[in-house]
Amino acid sequence: MSESRRRVSRGSQEESAAHTNGVGGRSRSERAADTGDEDEGAGPSGIHEEDDDPARRREIRSQYRDLINSVQQNREDMLNPANNKLIDVLEEANKLFANVRQAREAALDAQLLVLATDLGREKASQLHAEGSSFDPSAFAEHLLSFMGLNRLEEEEDDQEGLDGYLPPDAWQKLSKRAEHCFKTAPSFHYLLGSFLAEPPPPRQRVERQRKAPSKEAKRMMPTQLKKMEESHQEATEKEVERILGCLRSYYADDPESPISYYEFVVDPASFSRTVENIFHTSFLIRDGLARIYLDSEKLPCIAPVEDGEIEPSGNATRHQCVISISPSTWKEIIEAFEIKQALIPTVQMLTQEG
Amino acid sequence: MSQRKRVAHAGSQNRVPRVSRQVVLDEDDDGDASYTQPTSSQVQKARENYTPVQVDRKVAEVVQFILIKDQKKIPIRRTDIVKHVIKEYKALYQDIMKRADRIFEQVFGLKLVEIDAKNHIYILINKLQPVPGEPISMCPGNPKTGLLFVILSVIFMKGGTVKENVVWNTLKKLRVDVGEKHEEFGDVKKVVTEEFVRQKYLEYLRIPHTEPLEHEFRWGQRAEKEVSKMKVLEFVGELHSQEPQSWTQQYREATSGESSQR
Amino acid sequence: MSRPMGDSHKRFLQTLMSNGIISSIQAKALHRHCCETHGAHYSADRLDEFIDVINANLQPMFMYIRKGMSEEDGVQYYALVNTAETDITRMSSDYADNELELFRKTMDLIVDSENGAASSTDVLNCADSLQTKKMKKKETELVLNKFVQDKWLNEKQGVYTLSTRCIIEMEQYMRLIYQDLIKVCHVCHNVAIQSQICENPTCGIQMHLPCVAIYFKGRSDPLCPACNQFWAHEIPVVTCTLSRPPEANGEAEL
Description:
The complex is a heterotrimer. By secondary structure, chain A is mainly alpha-helical.
């Protein structure tokens, strides 16, 4: 970079600074004139020997950085209209600039100048306020009064002058009044159409499941029933319906007294029919058409679920359990519950038909 | 015949009149790739392609879309209107938007305002004023309006720009601490520096060359359209029991603002 | 577009936008206020015609002001509703996806229940099985609160019911989704969620509580209007409908 080009660029930079730097005291073009004479002495050869001295340059950069730092640290101080610190900084920078020969140092000078310009602008805006001044603290006090501050409790003002308390509707009250300054459009809120129309109706789902038992249910079927399931799928459905009918009629006869689950499913005359009954009854439970609950003695009871109260499947209150029964436990149950007769009549007739 | 007239009219409404020139890229906005200025022949063709019923439906959908986007007071971008609603009708964008604006005025008493002509960002403002004696309030009664009012008035009264500390200190005096969760506003800093900023009520800008980092607040583009400086000044005056005129500079700005908003 | 709207109509509409739903008493006062503010002709018995003008203009925008009755006290309300279900309407940002799923599940519980109500325990339990994004109990409570505040649900002592606003806007949706789970009131023929059911299993008609109160008022023997059997429910007293004083606070309490 030749000396003359550097000078030009420096000059234009200073010109723009001079425009915005009104408050900052001396303008930079003035400064350029000062330093100009000195530089003339450097001779026509261009870059002076000492310009390239790395130690000297390092020192200049370090001084610039210190200056920039001190400006950043003492921002508030710089802005205070009561002092001339900003001008002092600029004068300091002028002195440093006298020895600047290379771009790296000039860049730091520019950085400092931008900083000083911002501060100068801010300082100016503080000064030129016409008419009444506006003090945010006083404004806050007026707002507190408007919002209904209760200033009675003055004993408790331990913390930095925040005495009194605001009523719960304070901000609501301010908002109501402030709304008059706003031309806010009311907004439209709705629920219909904000989500997709799913899930399918719970009741339909119940019916569908009853017609086609899920794969899992099929897998879990006792082997001896699988055959029947395959050849008499419809029979299964009819059987489930029939058992539901039985349950409902027992329940209707005397809704008050609980129906013991074991008494209901166990056929004292046939172990296999007992297994079948347990199997078919499980559909009623799964489809939500009947429910099993524990009575006061913690024994399982069964009751039909009435139409209105069918629970959607997937409800968190549902539980699953596996019932296993062997011929010996079957006998034990018959004895313990003194079961004399099957509550579910035999299916002989039905399967023959199928 | 009347259609032709309308074409010419619509053309003159464009910011940059581009008659029969194929514009491939809308160079003025980067985030607006889904919209390119159609040529007048494209517009003409689109008008012939779609039935009035189809276009009516598009207009209604645009109205609906804008109302939905306004639920959270986030400004609406032209890109989104085109992408989500107008789609293949985009040659008719100008027609459709003009009609949507008419519906906002004639049915809802609202106005569609472009707050950013470069990026084509719109907001809705109200043409009706709240009046005393309402049996039920016309305004939603959001306590955040009070918070916003405090900040906007401090900025305005301090000449248009205010350092964040001034705002935080004022709020602290009003028992709203930026560092703490407020029971009505929640995370105040987030509401002020994110929500209000996204809604374009406020601008929250880094002050250059500050260490540690500092920010300042200004009025956002939405506030400039939606908030009346004169009304703010009147309310501030009311609070101080002082004439609005006594703040010479602010009063001058408010007066010029009123006339330009009309 | 049919009859153009004046500023009075626009003000009425804007107030409905802000409030979502207002009682008929509020609507009457608002009608008067709007007409007087804008110097429009006011006639007290023309409220429905006034609203018709707005509706004629709103309908093409998939919106409507619809009238409906509160299932709790029989008071008439006007609600501003959305009538479309499209990709655009699903962009509504009022609630997150899991919040909407919770609402749907709550609605399922309420519609499936016998008395048109769901306990907060049941609702909190179903929040565990949300598909979109699970919700903690505390969060669920906050969301439910928001639905109550926004007037989509009512809550009384830990029991949630569908609000009047919800029923007015969602009626068609509910009929479609729940089909025959949705019964109609024998008296007013509107959807009946909170209602009494005839105990006779072959009859099973339903009536809203306020409709029951009106229907059996002054009758010595409460018999089912359909099957003539004894109406085995407690008959609510008419607290009634038209002579109720306006709500003190201007807010529609649902």
